[in-house]
């Protein structure tokens, strides 16, 4: 971002798109301060786009009364925060925080149960717009993706940077939510960049500044460096990326195994991973990380239930079924446990996924503390053969019928409920 003397740094206004000559702080055409300037602005082609506080933004869009209020999207008393809007974040609310803690921090928050149907729909609209920019869109989740825009200049009559700024404007205008854009020469730094100025950000990290930019940052900035590895590095006296930059790749690999190579390369801004189209889904799963570790079976069960419902819902929406249920857990000391069970018939039902999940869970709850639980299905197939009536277990058939009836009601009336922080937890059970 440092202007270079004697040459004009390319730049434009993100509001009116006017090209900027010189170094003025406001746009020469419209007076907006939202300018982007960078020496490599028109050479960089790899972007990471991330919607800002996505679920909360969608709810605020649909209910203008929420605009100035702290809004938390989350799963009830036992649940955790999925998304907090920026106002709630000022009060200290964070994603994955248990709801009761979030409401301690921000009792006036409006809590809204997630309406995944709606978010998926809006996420698809955003993705469709991305695909109009380039065919090379690699989604990372419902609301973020990498885009490779090299070679699109002729199509858009604009360099990627301007195409991206136009895109951000168009999303605001036509969809009514905001995005942040990171533009760089590699995935790692594009993703770091999109996070620098949120919300409504547009950040550029060029080749020339990469090493210097990264040096003072904590090692956790590097993709794949979680709490455990950060603690190991810290114990070895390594806190910043700059320290990694002084260490040899072979040395890092000897000390930390295969991740050592990543540490060496990413710390120096070397990342050759290309943007590619995702493979079609091989599994459908949902997982959650706890704010505080959980060991008790009876505390894990309701979480497993709601995760099973999410998985089931996604299967039903995508018109697929799964033959094998997978339970995934991560212990407090970061060991992963995966348990599978093949079903007699493929399923789409939350009830079957959940019941298989708790059978697997029972064997794992031996006092071990867990930090993460997830459930999913693999061996995906067409749902035609899924969930035949169970002639032996009539109860199961009845529950399946009840679930189908519930799905129909949800389709018809929607499943959104709004609760405020004050009424929350007043003996209401969360399903
Ligand atoms: Mg996001």
TrEMBL record:
Cofactor note: Binds 2 magnesium ions per subunit.
EC annotation from Swiss-Prot or TrEMBL: 2.7.7.7
Keyword DNA damage: yes
Chloroplast recorded as keyword: no
Catalytic activity: DNA(n) + a 2'-deoxyribonucleoside 5'-triphosphate = DNA(n+1) + diphosphate
Compartments reported by the entry: Cytoplasm
Gene Ontology CC: one annotated term: cytosol
One Pfam family named in its UniProt record: IMS
GO biological process, one term: DNA-templated DNA replication
UniProt keyword list: Cytoplasm, DNA damage, DNA repair, DNA replication, DNA-binding, DNA-directed DNA polymerase, Magnesium, Metal-binding, Mutator protein, Nucleotidyltransferase, Transferase
Active site: 144
Highest taxon listed in the record's lineage: Bacteria
Protein purpose: Poorly processive, error-prone DNA polymerase involved in untargeted mutagenesis. Copies undamaged DNA at stalled replication forks, which arise in vivo from mismatched or misaligned primer ends. These misaligned primers can be extended by PolIV. Exhibits no 3'-5' exonuclease (proofreading) activity. May be involved in translesional synthesis, in conjunction with the beta clamp from PolIII.
Subunit and interaction comment: Monomer.
Similarity comment text for this entry: Belongs to the DNA polymerase type-Y family.
UniProt name for this protein: DNA polymerase IV
Native source species: Rhizobium mongolense subsp. loessense
